[in-house]
Design goal:
By secondary structure, this protein is of the alpha/beta class. Helices cover about 30% and strands about 25% of the residues. The strands form six sheets. The protein has a four-stranded mixed β-sheet. Strands 2-15-17-16 form a four-stranded mixed β-sheet, with helices on one face.
Length: about 425
């Protein structure tokens, strides 16, 4: 087991560069299955989930090679899916990462078949895939389920109109990728508007695909075009950025995050300002100015452009350091507050009533041994440790490494004391 040990109470100061976005790179890596030619993707974060996606693609017969380029020695990946040897994602890889489902659309488009194990629930609650499967069926796929596996097969996908029940991010991405080789035009309504969907659209356009409308609630895909190899740089990770801004605010620090698209974080910076955080914003950076005194705020998570669910846990930790009551309402997942109990070990007071968390902030927390229940909640516990008196140990830190690139090093660079240990 891996743990992070944090000595709290140090002000964060300095500059860090945001990594490429986890939730953009995963569907983009899956999209490389759509062509026989090589694709090169730059600014690839060093994350466990990226490794899992590489294993999935390798298992399907693709060649995946990571390397480093440029003065900053940033990571790139070269993927060549010239000849695919399989169409199945193992139960093990599917269990490691539920978003593995995003290979289904490209496999149906390329091979006309896909076999994945049905993902179970996770600490965020049930994670159904019914929107994905219903969408594939509408495009002309036959779905069969048995013994925990989903088998999908199509004699040829056909463009159709699809209205999603909810603007699901990976469903929108999966259907765009499936539709890219379909016969005719597909229109996806009530589509997710997240920047990661736009990044996927830009990659597909670079590959010669005809996709339009990502970033709005209607995406149109004109199918039938043969895709070629492409080179692409992935967008910055807005969730990582929001996490470091919250960390800076908790420690009354002075932190500048570069490689930022500020408008991707509009809902987040608005909430930080409401919480008393002074911010400076440029074309590609956001800086938390020193001397924050946190005030309680109410937060409701929403699909983009609303406040992101993935930044619900960090804001909960932040609100423990404000004096007064904050309400956090989670509107995307059933269980997003798994770390509330862990915060209480640190002296926090968080009452969870289904999808509502009542945070009674006292302005301080004290160090304790806690356990990361999932990725974002794990990062939130690290943030709590940065502001707490004394030492905090966050166990099960592998969850954090699924989605935060070298978090211990980045925080260390800002003056925090964070040590990674293997128990
Ligand atoms: N939903 C269904 N049926 C489906 C698909 C989704 O009922 O077939 C429901 C979900 O249960 C949830 C809601 O729809 O209640 C929205 O889920 P969505 O499908 O949008 O989530 P996702 O695509 O599985 C992506 C991110 C998540 C992020 C959510 C919401 C990726 C790889 N993952 O998940 O990221 O929280 O969108 O923004 O893009 C994370 O990075 O920690 C993470 C969980």
């Amino acid at each position: 087991m891996r743990s992070f040990i944090i000595e709290g109470g140090r002000r964060l100061e300095g500059e860090i560069r945001a990594s490429g976005a986890k939730n953009a790179i995963l569907p983009i890596m899956a999209a490389t299955l759509l062509t026989r030619e090589e694709c090169v993707i730059h600014d690839v974060p060093d994350l466990l989930d990226v490794g899992t996606m590489a294993d999935i693609l390798t298992g399907l017969g693709a060649k995946v090679r990571f390397g480093r380029d440029g003065a900053g020695r940033r990571r790139y990946v070269r993927i060549s899916a010239n000849s695919l040897t399989g169409c199945e994602v193992s139960a093990e890889l599917m269990g490691d990462m539920r978003s593995s489902i995003v290979v289904m659309g490209p496999l149906l488009a390329r091979l006309g078949k896909a076999r994945v194990s049905r993902p179970g629930g996770c600490s965020l609650g049930p994670r159904p895939i019914n929107f994905h499967l219903r969408g594939f069926e509408t495009l002309g796929t036959r779905i069969r389920e048995s013994h925990g596996f989903v088998d999908a097969e199509t004699p040829g996908l056909v463009g159709r109109e699809i209205t999603l029940d909810f603007p699901s991010v990976t469903t929108t991405e999966n259907l765009i990728m499936a539709a890219i080789h379909a016969d005719g035009r597909t229109v996806i309504r009530n589509a997710a508007r997240e920047p990661e969907v736009v990044d996927l659209q830009n990659f597909l356009i670079a590959m010669g695909g005809r996709v339009d409308g990502a970033g709005s609630d209607t995406v149109t895909v004109t199918g039938g075009k043969r895709l070629h190899g492409a080179e692409h740089t992935v967008i910055p990770d807005r969730i990582e950025i929001g996490t470091y801004l919250a960390a800076a605010a908790i420690t009354s620090g002075d932190v500048r995050v570069t490689n930022v698209v500020p408008q991707h974080l509009d809902a987040v910076t608005a909430k930080l300002r409401e919480a008393g955080v002074a911010l400076e914003q440029g074309n590609d950076h956001i800086r938390v100015l020193p001397g924050t005194r946190l005030k309680p705020v109410d937060v409701k998570t929403m699909p983009y452009p609303g406040y992101p669910t993935d930044l619900g846990p960090p804001v909960m930790s932040m609100m423990c350091f404000a004096e007064g009551t904050s309400l956090i309402t989670e509107n995307i997942f059933e269980k997003r507050f798994a770390h509330a109990e862990e915060l209480s070990r640190m002296g926090g007071s968080v009452e969870v009533l289904s999808r509502l968390a009542v945070v009674r902030g006292t302005g301080r927390l004290s160090g304790a041994r806690v356990r990361a229940p999932d990725l974002r909640a794990g990062a939130a516990l690290v943030l709590a440790g940065l502001g707490a008196d004394g030492t905090t140990t966050v166990d099960h830190a592998h969850h954090i490494e699924r989605g935060y690139e070298h978090m211990d090093d980045k925080l260390g660079h800002l003056g925090a004391f964070v040590r990674k240990v293997e128990n």
